[in-house]
User: What shape does this take?
Amino acid sequence: MNQTISNERINQLNNCKINSDGKYVLYCMISARRLKWNFGLKFAVEKAKQLNKPLVVIEPLNIDHKWASDRIHNFVINGMLDNRADFENTPITYFPFVETTKNQGKGILRKFSELSTMVVIDDFPTYFPKIVVDRIAPKLPVKTVAIDSNGLLPMKLVGKECSTAHSFRRFTHKNILPFIEDEVFTSSLPSMNGLRQLSQFEINDIIMKTEYKMTPLEWLWRASQPDDIGINALSSIDIDHEVFPVKSIRGGSKNAYERMKIFLDTKLEKYSEDRNKPSLKATSGMSPWLHFGHISTHEIVHNILKKEKWDPGLVNESRIGSRSGWWGMSESAEGFLDQLITWRELGFNFAYFRDDHTNWTSLPQWAQNSLEEHSNDYKEETYSFEELESAQTSDPVWNAAQNQLVREGIIQNYLRMLWGKKILQWSPDAKTAMDWMIKLNDRWALDGRDPNSYTGIFWVLGRHDRAWFERPIFGKIRYMTSNSTKKKYNLDEYLKIYG
Ligand SMILES: Cc1cc2nc3c(=O)[nH]c(=O)nc-3n(C[C@H](O)[C@H](O)[C@H](O)COP(=O)(O)OP(=O)(O)OC[C@H]3O[C@@H](n4cnc5c(N)ncnc54)[C@H](O)[C@@H]3O)c2cc1C
Assistant: This one.
């Protein structure tokens, strides 16, 4: 490979030519919302230098998507403040754009692209960024390229979706080393030497021609606060205000880095032993920042490899496809990398190759058949969507998990599995359970609307799993109970906080 960005990360979205009269190269940052380990940014810098043009970065935050809320706005705007500060030390011109009235953002990408030489945009396989990449970006009037910064393996490398974690892990072990060598053991930032910078006069001209409404810094700061100041600033925007900002999980690359450091310094060592224990908060908690691209998995992996003093010579080829033993690292580091790489990227792989990744049809046939066969089974206990959303069930463990989701925008992983299984048990039928899980998770979870949202939710319904003993309601789908969870893990502390 031996180049900064592998070809598999590059997707040409249209057949338009480079506009050599354009004023700048445009990078539209819609999912990799960061400066470091950002392949879209690296690619855009390289192109700008080759074409001898300045680079403009626009980071939009729209309101015309289904789950726009105070929670998401607050988190992303926090990230914009970090990005604003980070770009100030570079020759790149950065425009954060928060849509504050309906349709204000409509056409903004087109207007910026009309003045540009070419456009680079982030590739992302789910939700709103996918719509932008699939439907809006290909119609821009200049050459437009989507770059995949999502994970260690480029999404399209496998060539098809993997139905099991095992097959994806095998593929990963066989193919990952060149990517680690070229993309993890490399500079986190593009070299900006020789990159032209726009003058203030040129910037003013762009602002005038694109009719860009500069989001005032003072407003950004207020909207980034997780308390009444932020809530007041966001109150005039037409988004879901019931989904309030989370005080304990604040967006931005700086907070992401802090969280990563705390995890690596104090928790990684006991990850394998403690990750399933809800009361201990033993996992990294990185999923919200990973979802919004405030931190890259490359940065996390880079730090783990350094901490473990790892080099490719430690790889044990006889362990290809195994959950442990292939890397030649400590058990906990390997366990964590299996979640961060195998499970996380399996979700990106599946969403990339399956447009129906949020639909019933994406389930394996055995799971669809079995759940349909049991759709009329008698249910002792059922709840409405509203009862579930407001955590009014007879099960204190489930209610606590739902409370954590509403309060903090996250549920501990083991309880997240149980949370989903109980929704399957209590909903009118499995298709409704699927819809309700998606609605609850996408609305309240900070890390929702992610490829892994659908990996998790559809895992509850049998995707990436095997058939188990047949039983009522669940059919051959794996079954979980709150009682066995309580027996397995001490939930006292968890129930005290969220119960
Ligand atoms: C019903 C259900 C819904 C889920 N919804 C989401 C979601 O909306 N967004 C989301 O990112 N994850 C989701 N997951 C997967 C998992 O619960 C979270 O990724 C994990 O709990 C995040 O916590 P952490 O960052 O502390 O994870 P850690 O254990 O610290 O792991 C590090 C990273 O690895 C990845 N990861 C860990 N576990 C999994 C997993 N089981 N599947 C896929 N990737 C994983 C995540 O990116 C995570 O941040 C869901 C799982 C279930 C069962």
Notes: The radius of gyration is 23 Å. The mean pLDDT is 96. The chain is about 45% helix and 5% strand. Residues 313 and 328 are 9 Å apart (CA to CA).
